[in-house]
Design brief:
Strand order of the largest sheet: 4-3-8-7-5-6
Number of strands: 8
Shape: globular
Strand content: 5-15%
Structural class: alpha/beta
Length: 238
């Protein structure tokens, strides 16, 4: 583990991290979060409950920006975007069953068609408010459903709260991956940044240019706060 900005990030190359996640699918229930800049800012300023995010069994860095900041402190973060991890986990030949929570039925059907050798379970994800009776009912349904790996693909931090709630609901085994738009990328509903943008750590710019109204606040107004939190947690705290 590498501690950075108060979070304990998992170490290892992609094959090692993927093997760790696959092993969790066969063990006691746990969930995986994939911290990016937006997640860390909202955790630091209290908009995300600490017990929900820190309750994850594994934190895998999803941000090259965070990795670059870590280098300034002589630390190395293993970057493994959630969308890459999802695609890699779906690719091998194995007998894992995947639950899908978030995408609509059409997206689910497209995913099934793309991976004919995999077993999938569709879990309805209506627009819900955490803590309501309707939310509790969906959590109960998901906790009892057939899956080894649950792909939780709803907005942050709702997917993390859902993964956390499954533990309280008594889910005995399996792993939930909080992986946002991963299914949208796999089914072509959204397009990831070209490789050159990824290599230059400019995926955020591609998303901003692709969805300016949706992403302007996140990347232009709120995003720069990460530098202040970096100074507070990694420089002044020492």
């Amino acid at each position: 583990m590498t501690r950075f900005m108060t979070l304990d990030f998992a170490d290892g190359d992609r094959p090692a991290l993927l093997a760790q996640v696959a092993a969790m699918a066969r063990g006691p229930y746990g969930y995986v979060v994939t911290p990016n800049v937006d997640h860390v800012i909202k955790l630091m300023d209290g908009r995300v409950a600490e017990d929900v995010y820190r309750g994850a069994a594994l934190m895998i860095c999803d941000s090259r920006i965070l990795a670059h900041l870590a280098k300034l402190r002589g630390k190395r973060l293993s970057v493994y975007p959630g969308s890459d991890m999802t695609a890699d986990l779906l690719a091998p030949d194995h007998d894992l069953t995947f639950g899908v929570f978030g995408p609509d039925r059409a997206a689910f059907d497209d995913l099934v068609a793309r991976y004919p050798g995999r077993r999938f379970t569709f879990i309805e994800a209506p627009m819900l408010t955490p803590g309501t009776p309707e939310w509790d009912a969906v959590v109960k349904t998901a906790a009892a459903a057939e899956w080894d790996v649950l792909l939780a693909c709803v907005s942050f931090p709702k997917q993390e709260r859902f993964a956390h709630a499954l533990r309280a609901a008594g889910r005995p085994f399996g792993v939930t991956l909080c992986v946002g738009a991963s299914i949208d990328f796999l089914t072509g509903r959204q397009h990831r940044a070209p490789k050159i943008f990824q290599q230059l750590s400019l995926e955020w710019l591609h998303r901003l240019l692709s969805q300016p109204k949706r992403m302007f606040r996140r990347y232009v107004i709120e995003g720069p706060a990460i530098f202040g939190w970096f100074v507070r947690t990694e420089v002044l705290s020492r």
